[in-house]
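Re: [help] complex structure
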Amino acid sequence: MTFPKIDLNKLKNEGTESVTIKERRNFLKLGFAITGVYASGKILSLSSTFSGVAYASGGSDFVEKYPYNPHYSMVIRQSLCIDCEKCVEACNKTNHVPEYGYRTRILTRKYQGQLDKQVEFIPVLCNHCNDAPCVRACPTKATYKDPVTGIVRMESKKCIGCKTCMLACPYDARYFNAGRHAIDKCDFCWEERLSKGETQTGCSSACPTGARTFGNLTDPENIVFKLVHQLEESVWVLRPEDGTKPNIFYMKGNMVSVDNILKGQKFIYSDPAKS
Amino acid sequence: MTGSMVNISKRWGYHGIDALKKASPGYLMLMGAFALLALAGVSVGLHGMVVGYHHVYGVSREISWGILISAYVFCVVTSTGLCIISSIGHVFGGEAFMPIAKRAVFMSIIFMLGGFCIIFFDIENPFRMAIYNVISPNLSSNMWWMGTLYGAYLVFMIIEYYFLLEQNHSLSRLMGFFGLVVGIAAHSNLGAVFGMLHGRPFWYGPYLPIYFIFSAAMSGGCAIMFVSTLAWKINPEIMNQRMERAIKAVCQVTIFLISTIMFFTIWKIVTGMVSHDKSLVIMSLVTGDYAINFWCFEIFLGMVLPLFLLLRSRGNNFNMIMWATGLMMVGIFFMRYDIVIPGQMISVYHSLGVEEALDIIKYTPSFHEIMAALFGLSVICFAYFAGEKMLNGHQLEKHEIVPEGGYICPGCGAIHFMEEGETVEDAMKRHHKIW
Ligand code: SF4
Ligand code: SF4
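Output below.
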């Protein structure tokens, strides 16, 4: 089996002209019904347990029914990451991660022959998969999907340390923590921050460039909702072929359209001839 | 007490500690060496447990299953294999295979226990396992099923062995059948523990569960021949015509199974070479770091040499069989290692093309890991040598010497005992009642 390698540099922005009105409409519907993940015409990730479309009270026609509420998610705007590792530091400090372990890290991808940049940084962490292989693999339910928030958490006292979950995880998100006598992993800072009333994770609040945006996917006003539900810029997930239904989304995140969305504007067509 | 001892000795062929005292000094020294090695292994393992495995083990975040899991897999594969091969005789009535049953079932129990000794030092919190496997089971986890099914398998094998000793052939057959069913379920599930991990393309898929069953049968055949011919070296008296016939039959089956595994291996390599995700691993087996493991141990010692020697021995040359199967056991160990470690060598982020995941990940077993694995293996060796003496070569019949009240069953050739007032025919019917 070969996994499709998506070389984002080779993808061209197809522009709106090449999409017919009908496709556009269909996709708009889909975009709400399916976590709007669209790269070069391929839908990469479907949000799980989609159980019908609910009519929303607010402005839009359809609202995705996400399996959790709040459905925590992170959108990583990859181009904004400068590898300062402030997030990693913050994570280690917040969650008392020992020296030999990490919950999140920054990967480096190098390019040759590109005009704009030679290197790209890709933050990775637990994807809080909706179909989490680690949860299936654990013999004692020591790791579980929180039924309310969808966060994949640990009940340390049940962990027998068989390390099956470490091998089951296709994102290398777990390590054995000798101090806890259990596997340790990202919990979106549930224990240290969210459960104490904070709304941001350690890493997202430490990120100086806004590369990591954290929020609630069920809230149309939330930044992650807005970033995921737009058409202009591709959104993708890592290793979609494993069918884990991840909740960490990636995008380049430096296009004007994204800024416009965040500023609350729908679309601004700028005419280069006029400016 | 003495009375019942005599009784057990007669019925079970149990010769007690006395038999050990009569053993030659060389034999005792060998046993002592294994006992010492086991002791050293368990001490080093406990030391690791106290100071924390992450300080002393070679396993890492990426390669989290190392030589201990390989050794565990080796033990349980051999155990299941012994059960599969011996069941041809005493469960399915293949007459030629019957005389190996007692030794095979005994060794199958021992290999399983040895495997448990090893995994004890791999699991970080083995004591929690006993509690939470029961009160918080995850039925969709292969790992949970592995523990449960192997546990049940061990229980069935022990009961079966008891009935074999008691000469209750109908019950031992029934238990043997259950043991076989559970053992096969447990074992294919072990393949699925690996085969159901996404993101590990070297393992993922139905190949491993199927391969494990055939591979187990091959290991079982090899192990039976090895322990039987070694027992013959220890005590030539155990070889009689029926035993010779049994070895020959096992030899034929094993030759067939080795060929099957060769076939499996060839296609694994060929298909892997054209796969984008597996080719790095396959190349490291064929030409890279694992080439010696693969070609010298797995292929040559594990398959080619034994196939050649077993064919040449024609199933009669016990010396040759002993060498062939002894070396093959070593080869099989590497076969297991070559499944467990290479499956983890490619980072899950390799396909992303990032700098951190370009190369294959390395693993070298540490001293602590090797000793903990040796603990389990020496327990097995020690128990084997003790068993050969104390259980009198797992034989009742010493050729002509038939104990009082016993007779040689014309059907199966073993020694049966008559109850009072029973005719030979009645006794035979009782022993071979079909359930
Ligand atoms: S990323 Fe790994 S640890 Fe996180 S939920 Fe998915 S499988 Fe589990
Ligand atoms: S190491 Fe712990 S959390 Fe992971 S599968 Fe084993 S018991 Fe479950």
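Helices of chain A lie at 21-33, 86-94, 133-137, 164-168, 202-206, 223-228, 256-262.
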